[in-house]
């Protein structure tokens, strides 16, 4: 009986490998390359202890702890520095990889009706889940080994064998945890979107929980799976317990996932669905209304995420101030800027993260237009009295408004929670001004999506690479001392770091004009091409 | 008066020619059957008619307007039912019907409720729970509750049960009696025979036959069974007779429709006891065209 539930797992595993023969290697190559290039870059920039002493000054504060986690600054070797700056963010991306791969092959396949075909063949009830987990778990293990041995083979003094293997194991372990999380969510939710959305929400919550607890009470960080990443103290004390926790935790999650999968009906979930409305509300009866309605849950979830992100960053600002209050040296160093408090000088760094994360939901909103096309539902609209211009502009406007709302929500909650903890409060104008400076660049990104949808829809997802590139060069730009042009390949590279820098209205105007041009071109292209 | 007309419509996807000089014409108050095997280009043609695909060559006009550039204007008077209805899984059937009505412009709520009743649909369910037939019903209800002048139906009854198929046929007859035009692409030949005034047959992107059912029947053969008092002579020598088979006293054969008169005159010499004739079905017509070259219609006037 038990063995029958898993019949044909091998065959299905090969099917998954065949489908993902490009996707999985791309993830592995991308993540390994990205991880291995960092210490090589660091050795040029921060090879000596003196060079690292400079970076310690800027890293050793609660705001940075919230972003990348704590570190042993007394023993800040190149290895410790690499792990401190990179491991948490990389682990989060590995978690994302697991989420996307598992969701696609479990609930995604089921939703599209392919699991029904498989189940009608002599394959076991749990075989597809089993095959998916097998392949994605192996992907994570392979990643752990490549990264582990890869880092060691770089032959850099402080990157010893044990630390390197632990580095890889932590990444792979985080991947396994999110394999478990997603497998469980795939049973609870009825749709692939829901599965991915819930799993990413858990990933973000784990990150925020770790951020808050790392600053307030480090012991509580053990509650977050992403807290375990920094608790491993790679290249310092090399603690393997977190990896054990990760493996055990993912096995527990998988056990529940298997159990729920075995007892539920095909196509059903455990989060109950309510009976729906008999008629459409007035709001739904337009292309824009429909687009908004389809993204309702996702938009609300992102809005909540943005509020949480803003308030967690804001809550750290109080600690930041008291941290610097006693340190005259740093106070002198930072006080060069007149009329600005220490907190205000730290704002631009937080704003980059807030602005780039706030760019994700509007891009999802506009890319949905192509997603609908692929699902064959655009014909319903274009076959009626909806013009292509009206259709694409509906999505553009939703995206543009969405981005504005997300940015504003995050900024507002950052200000609200920041002003509560910082003595004397914060200037709302300075914070909101700093955030709005990013808005034209965000609209340029939306414009690029519109352009791709208009002319080469198959390549729409390329925009995500561009967003990722922007994040890397801006977030890590200071650390790696890139030349200006590297940042300025991205529209975000032209955004002034207000309030430290002056607002540059000319570049904002130029970005806005470029954004409008891209959108106009996208509309023209969309009017000319065939719908798939 | 011509409602819909394509002239030399050609559509290429890269090097592949999906449609090769398609000519279609649909007049006011007429039901045109559009038949052809899978992959012949029926849906591609319909998507060009709707301005969703752009014709590579040729002219496509509906209501004397260009199908591509005046799409929105044209669609105000068109109702479309796709063959494969993909709906939004998290909206209810009722919501989708209302949405579709609103997107077209006008709608008739009384007619909508009547049709929901007739098609026996529960509009409060989410679309992800609907079967193929139920999703098809939603598209049909949305189409027939609208006040269109042209109905474009792409295999509209796939997935419907026989009872619902009847309801559908009733709907088509109703709109026809109101003087509306219908383009009906279908595989179900009995349905086409019942509903259509004229038929166009497409194969590998080309229209290979067009005309009224009567005209097309002239192109094919009638099945006959005859029993005579005296033994039949050399039937095989006659023009237009095929597939002669002796079954005891009686003989069955196929006969070119334009040779019927001659053959009957000949048969009557032998004293006819029993004569049965079956008109060619669309099925036979269809099969003849698709079975390939071996048995193509040779004789008879094409139009």
From TrEMBL, chain A:
Segments traversing the membrane: 24-43, 83-102, 129-153, 165-184, 196-213, 240-260, 302-326, 346-370, 391-416, 436-456, 463-483, 503-526
Stretches assigned to coiled coil: none
Keywords: Membrane, Transmembrane, Transmembrane helix
Stated name of the protein: ABC transporter permease
Organism phylogeny: Bacteria, Bacillati, Bacillota, Bacilli, Bacillales
Automatic annotation (TrEMBL), chain B:
Native species: Aquibacillus koreensis
Keyword terms of this UniProt record: ATP-binding, Nucleotide-binding, Transport
UniProt protein name: ABC transporter ATP-binding protein
A GO term for molecular function: ATP binding
Keyword hit for ATP-binding: yes
Family matches, as InterPro entries: AAA+_ATPase, ABC_transporter-like_ATP-bd, ABC_transporter-like_CS, ABC_transporter_ATP-binding, DrrA1/2-like_C, P-loop_NTPase
Pfam (any one): ABC_tran
Domain ABC transporter: 4-229
PANTHER family: ABC TRANSPORTER ATP-BINDING PROTEIN, ABC TRANSPORTER ATP-BINDING PROTEIN NATA
Similarity field: Belongs to the ABC transporter superfamily.
Record has Nucleotide-binding as a keyword: yes
The organism's taxonomic lineage, starting at the top: Bacteria, Bacillati, Bacillota, Bacilli, Bacillales
């Amino acid at each position: 009986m038990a063995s029958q539930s898993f019949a044909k797992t091998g065959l299905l595993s090969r099917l998954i490998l065949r489908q993902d023969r490009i996707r999985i290697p791309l993830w592995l190559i991308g993540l390994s390359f990205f991880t291995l290039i960092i210490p090589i870059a660091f050795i040029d920039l921060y090879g000596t202890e003196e060079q690292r002493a400079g970076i310690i000054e800027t890293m050793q504060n609660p705001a940075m702890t919230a972003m990348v986690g704590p570190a042993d600054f007394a023993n800040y070797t190149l290895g410790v520095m690499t792990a401190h700056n990179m491991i948490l963010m990389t682990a989060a991306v590995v978690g994302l990889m697991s989420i996307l791969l598992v969701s696609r092959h479990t609930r995604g396949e089921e939703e599209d009706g392919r699991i029904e075909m498989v189940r009608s063949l002599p394959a076991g009830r749990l075989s597809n889940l089993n095959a998916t987990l097998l392949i994605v778990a192996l992907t994570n293990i392979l990643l752990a080994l490549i990264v582990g041995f890869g880092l060691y083979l770089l032959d850099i003094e402080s990157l010893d064998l044990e630390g390197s293997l632990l580095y890889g194991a932590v990444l792979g372990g985080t991947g396994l945890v999110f394999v478990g999380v997603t497998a469980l969510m795939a049973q609870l939710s009825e749709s692939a979107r829901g599965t991915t959305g819930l799993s990413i929400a858990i990933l973000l919550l784990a990150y925020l929980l770790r951020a808050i607890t790392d600053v307030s009470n480090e012991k509580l960080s053990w509650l977050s799976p992403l807290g375990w990443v920094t608790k491993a103290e790679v290249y310092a004390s090399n603690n393997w317990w977190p990896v054990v926790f990760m493996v055990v935790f993912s096995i527990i999650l998988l056990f529940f996932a298997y159990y729920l999968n075995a007892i539920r009906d095909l196509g059903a979930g455990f989060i109950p669905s309510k009976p729906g409305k008999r008629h459409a509300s007035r709001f739904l009866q337009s292309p824009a209304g429909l687009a908004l309605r389809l993204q309702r849950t996702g938009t609300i979830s992102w809005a909540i995420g943005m509020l949480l992100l803003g308030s967690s960053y804001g809550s750290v600002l109080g600690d930041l101030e008291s941290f610097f209050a006693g340190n005259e040296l740093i106070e002198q160093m930072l006080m060069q800027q007149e009329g600005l408090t220490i907190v205000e000088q730290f704002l631009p760094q937080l704003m980059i993260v807030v602005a780039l994360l706030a760019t994700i939901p509007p891009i999802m909103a506009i890319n949905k237009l192509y997603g609908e096309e692929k699902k064959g539902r655009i014909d319903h609209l274009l076959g009626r009295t909806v013009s292509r211009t009206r259709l694409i502009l509906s999505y553009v406007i939703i995206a543009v408004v969405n981005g504005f709302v997300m940015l504003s929500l995050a900024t507002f909650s950052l200000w609200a929670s920041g002003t509560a903890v910082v003595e004397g409060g914060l200037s709302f104008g300075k914070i909101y001004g700093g955030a709005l400076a990013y808005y034209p660049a965000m609209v340029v990104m939306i414009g690029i999506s519109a352009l791709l949808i208009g002319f080469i829809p198959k390549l729409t997802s390329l925009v995500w690479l561009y967003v990722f590139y922007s994040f890397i060069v801006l977030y890590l730009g200071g650390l790696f001392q890139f030349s200006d042009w590297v940042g300025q390949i991205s529209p975000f590279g032209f955004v002034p770091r207000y309030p430290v820098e002056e607002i540059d209205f000319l570049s904002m105007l130029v970005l806005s004009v470029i954004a409008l041009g891209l959108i106009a071109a996208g509309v023209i292209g969309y009017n000319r091409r065939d719908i798939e | 008066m011509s409602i819909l007309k394509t002239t030399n419509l050609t559509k290429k996807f890269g090097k592949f020619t999906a449609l090769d000089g398609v000519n279609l014409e649909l007049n006011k108050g007429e039901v045109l059957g559009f038949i052809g095997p899978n992959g012949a280009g029926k849906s591609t043609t319909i998507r060009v008619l709707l301005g969703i695909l752009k014709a590579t060559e040729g002219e496509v006009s509906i209501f004397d307007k260009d199908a591509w550039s005046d799409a929105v204007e044209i669609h105000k008077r068109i109702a479309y039912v796709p063959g494969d209805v993909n709906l939004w899984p998290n909206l209810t059937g009722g919501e989708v019907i209302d949405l579709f009505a609103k997107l077209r412009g006008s709608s008739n709520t009384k007619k909508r409720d009547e049709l929901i009743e007739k098609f026996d649909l529960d509009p409060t369910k989410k679309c992800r729970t609907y079967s193929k037939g139920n999703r098809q019903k939603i598209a049909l209800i949305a189409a027939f509750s609208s006040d269109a002048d042209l109905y474009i139906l792409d295999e509209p009854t796939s997935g419907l049960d026989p009872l619902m198929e009847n309801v559908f046929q009733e709907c088509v007859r109703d709109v026809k009696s109101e003087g509306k035009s219908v383009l009906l692409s279908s595989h179900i030949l009995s349905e086409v025979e019942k509903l259509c005034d004229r038929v166009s047959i497409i194969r590998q992107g080309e229209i290979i036959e067009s005309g009224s059912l009567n005209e097309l029947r002239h192109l094919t053969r009638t099945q006959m069974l005859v029993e005579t008092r005296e033994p039949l002579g050399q039937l095989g020598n006659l023009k237009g007779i095929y597939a002669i088979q002796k079954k005891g006293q009686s003989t069955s054969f196929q006969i070119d429709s334009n040779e019927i008169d001659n053959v009957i005159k000949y048969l009557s010499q032998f004293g006819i006891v029993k004569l049965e004739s079956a008109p060619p079905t669309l099925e036979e017509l269809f099969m003849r065209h698709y079975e390939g070259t071996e048995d193509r219609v040779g004789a008879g006037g094409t139009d």
